[in-house]
């Protein structure tokens, strides 16, 4: 059995919410964090999730795996570029994409940008995706610690996003879904405000019914400097 909770919030500083998310329970989930002026980020993130929704509304009979998820993101990439070409005020818009689909107890995922997918299993929280950002590259090569990356002045500079270039590389993969697994999809408005120890504590809690809303509240309490979006999936043996 799979339970999903989801929430988004504009935060305390921003004028618009450029995050979008999708929950097609019990199989398909995505978060997207848009970027670009004049509400263009909101347009880009909505195009991403709408492209996913359009695909699954068509009722395909073939197997859905990570390669199919990649193709959907690439289709969204083309749609965003086309929209920006037709509307010059949207030039330069783009979005992150963290996208998960579950088939027969296998989680397939595809990802671009610095939104994240986490897996909590056996009391261990693992980040499934890698950030496509300047500071994450510096963390990987040992120049920065993860703690230093949180306050680095260029922490929001992406090295890869949907809708920026005609050719884009999509990270993708899969993992088996087990009983009592918990999965978090979120934008960086959460992870820049709430550390992984607190994320783990909240996701693991048996006392919190709506964990997505609880995570949003924590990010707001920490300053809410960005839009915040979270989806929490929980499996159990009921």
Detailed description of the structure:
With 238 residues, the protein is α+β, with helices and mostly antiparallel strands. It has a single domain, classed as PPM-type phosphatase domain (Phosphatase 2c, domain 1). The protein contains seven helices and eleven strands. The strands form two sheets. Strands 2, 3, 4, 5, 6 and 9 form a six-stranded antiparallel beta sheet that branches. Strands 1-11-10-7-8 form a five-stranded antiparallel beta sheet. α1 crosses α2. The longest helix has 21 residues. The protein starts with a strand and ends with a strand.
Question: Quick gist of this model?
Answer:
This protein is α+β, with helices and mostly antiparallel strands. Helix content is 31%, strand content 28%. Strand 5 and strand 6 form a beta hairpin.
């Amino acid at each position: 059995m799979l339970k999903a909770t989801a929430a988004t919030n504009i935060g305390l500083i921003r004028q618009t919410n450029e995050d979008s998310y999708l929950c097609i329970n019990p199989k398909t989930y995505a978060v997207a964090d848009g970027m670009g002026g004049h509400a263009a980020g909101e347009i880009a993130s909505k195009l991403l999730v709408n492209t996913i929704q359009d695909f699954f509304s068509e009722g395909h009979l073939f197997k859905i795996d990570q390669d199919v998820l990649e193709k959907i993101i690439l289709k969204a990439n083309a749609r965003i570029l086309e929209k920006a070409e037709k509307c010059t005020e949207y030039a330069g818009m783009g979005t992150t994409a963290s996208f998960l689909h579950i088939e027969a107890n296998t989680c397939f995922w595809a990802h671009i940008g610095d939104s994240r997918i986490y897996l909590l299993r056996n009391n261990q929280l693992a980040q499934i995706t890698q950030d496509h950002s300047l500071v994450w590259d510096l963390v990987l090569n040992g120049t920065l610690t993860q703690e230093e990356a949180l306050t680095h002045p260029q922490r929001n500079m992406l090295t890869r996003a949907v809708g920026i270039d005609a050719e884009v590389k999509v990270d993708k993969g899969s993992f088996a879904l087990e009983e009592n697994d918990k999965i978090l999809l979120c934008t960086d408005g959460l992870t820049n405000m709430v550390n992984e120890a607190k994320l783990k504590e909240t996701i693991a809690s048996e006392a919190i019914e709506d964990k997505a809303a609880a995570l949003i509240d924590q990010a707001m309490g920490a300053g809410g400097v960005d839009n915040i979006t979270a989806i929490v999936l929980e499996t159990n043996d009921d």
